[in-house]
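chain below, 88 aa
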Amino acid sequence: MTKFFFATLAIAAFALPSNAGVLLPNLYAREYCSMRSMGVSEDESVQVAMRASYIQGEAIKITINGKVYDADVVQAMRAANDRCPQFM
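prediction:
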């Protein structure tokens, strides 16, 4: 995984609302890639995608290279990377 991938994870983690919820990875990727293809900025694309794909639930925590992430956020970033790698 690239440094940019982890930077995007950090952006995504801070953009989430404070109440419990999870992202639907494929919906996130669809919205993110759609926004980016229209020329929307990285930050705004992340916000739009997160709002569109956020549902109530409790995220599963995972550890990558000693850092803890929500599994749904990692899955969403990977789905976006698979769908539109030119923007990642």
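The helical segments are 3-15, 25-37, 42-53, 71-83. The chain has a mean pLDDT of 85.
thats it, cya
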